[in-house]
Amino acid sequence: LPSFKRLRKNLSRKTKRSLHIENRILSLGYSIPPPSVPVANYVGVKRIGNMVYLSGHLPFEDPQNFKGLITGKVGKDLTIPDATEAARNIALNLIGSLASVVPDLDNVEIVQLLGVVNCDDTFEASPTVINGASDFLVQIFGEKGMHTRMAMGTNSLPLGAAVEIQMTACVHEK
After folding, report:
1. What is d(CA 70, CA 84) in angstroms, rounded to the nearest whole number?
2. Which of 75, 93, 127, 158 could bridge 151 with an S-S bond, Cβ 3.0-4.6 Å?
3. What is the pTM of this model?
């Protein structure tokens, strides 16, 4: 929760904001995490005009310190419900990264998710896993959380992560 208070304090200096999205996140028992830190030669989030592009995020419990990564092959090392929860975790981390470049989350519309699940070649429930992120984004943003999406399986992800999700959003400033 301290990171959310710091974020709110830093952003409120820049612009007048509404807090509906932040309050919805808090009411569900979550707090907005700090943005993920890139591990190579790329940026985690890039805003161009009203579009925001977020690099693939992994299911870290602490994205800034790379702690608590959920790893393994879904269907073998990890159950579908556990992987779905990992996807929900990623959605929250994506919101944290988004909040680092968007002063008011109430102006955000989620455009697209690209979700990848670490699994073997017989696993067919990748869309079910990525629903964890999709459902969470709709729960948080309402109709503005509806998005296009791709969900697929692969035999490996960075650091052995169970799931990776990339997101694109649009900012409708008033």
Report:
1. 11
2. 127
3. 0.88
